[in-house]
Amino acid sequence: MIKVIPAADRHHASHGWLDSYFLFSFSDYYDLNNVQWGPLRVFNDDYIKGNSGFPEHPHSEMEIVTIVLEGEVTHKDSLGNNTVIKAGEVQRMTTGTGVRHSEHNSSDKDLHLYQLWFFPNKKGLAPSYEQKSIDFTDEKNELVPLVTGQKVLEDVVYINSNSTIYYANLKDGKEIDFKTFPIRKGLIYVTTGELFVNGIQVQKNDQVRSSDVDALRIKAAADSTFILIDLPGVEANY
Questions:
Q1: I need a labelling partner for 56 at 20 to 30 A (CA). Which of 36, 80, 139, 169 fits?
Q2: Reduced to 3 DSSP states, what percent helix, strand and coil does the chain have, rounded to the nearest 5?
Q3: Spatial separation of the C-alpha atoms in residues 208 and 187, rounded to whole Å
Q4: Is the dihedral of CA 147, 96, 103, 13 positive or negative?
Q5: Does Iron count among this protein's keywords (predicted)?
């Protein structure tokens, strides 16, 4: 199954300092048929104005991943971390038994980031934090792994989920074949440009959700960037 969800179908929440686009039910947006995709519970596309951000708040029993596309975010948490995540860097926070954190854009420039939440493969984990510079924004014409719980990949951020997040910067006309299995799910979110996924056209901010396929054949119809997430299809494999 290949399902395309147009950009216009995302839920948009505007708070002046924050423009956020929800791919799944979140905050005041709830759709019984759009709660999660495999263990992926939240995917928010956030634009945060300078000198603003999220005050300290609690989380538990989630794997939270932040991917910074433009600008930088200052992170503080109850574990004692006080860091700055810049464009091309990735952060993972295991909230486990409970953690408090704040995220602020402390600069004058706008910040663009993706935040994703995954159900962990174990409950009651000790809270932990990881941050890594992967420089994924460079043109590579390949899938660059950013975050994974599949131990066959190295030099990426670890997550307590049987999932992997990839980023690709693909020139017009270039192709990528991603081999998968019918028991897996996939999600592609187009950051810029235009793609054909298994022959189906998708454009900026569209998403593709796949299941019961053995390959995703991706061709750029223009210079394009996108996120691809490889996910387990059944809860027993989260």
A1: 36
A2: 5, 55, 40
A3: 5
A4: positive
A5: yes
Which tokens in the block code for residue 127? 């809270």
For the segment 75-84, the average pLDDT, to the nearest whole number, is: 96
Q: Measure the CA–CA gap between 25 and 44, rounded to whole angstroms.
A: 10
The CA distance from 220 to 135, in Å, is: 21
Contacts of 194 (CB under 8 A, 6+ apart): 201, 202, 203, 204, 220, 221, 222, 224
Using CA atoms, how far apart are residues 127 and 79, in angstroms rounded to an integer? 8
Query: At CA 65, angle to CA 98 and CA 218, rounded to 5?
Result: 150
Position 209 scores a pLDDT of 98
Q: Which domains does the chain have, with CATH numbers?
A: 9-232 (2.60.120.10)
153 confidence band (pLDDT: 50, 70, 90): confident
Does 28 have pLDDT greater than 80? yes
E strand intervals along 137-223: 143-148, 157-158, 164-170, 175-179, 184-192, 194-197, 200-203, 207-211, 215-220
Q: How far apart are CA 16 and CA 47, in angstroms?
A: 10
User: Which residues partner with 83 through β-bridges?
Assistant: 75
Global pTM value? 0.96
- Which positions make up the binding site? 57, 59, 101, 103
The tokens for 154 are: 């190295």
Backbone angles phi, psi at 213, to 5 degrees: -125, 160
Buried b (16+ CB within 10 A) or exposed e, 11-33: bebeeeebbbbbbbbbeeeeeee
Residue list, annotated binding site for Fe cation = 57, 59, 101, 103
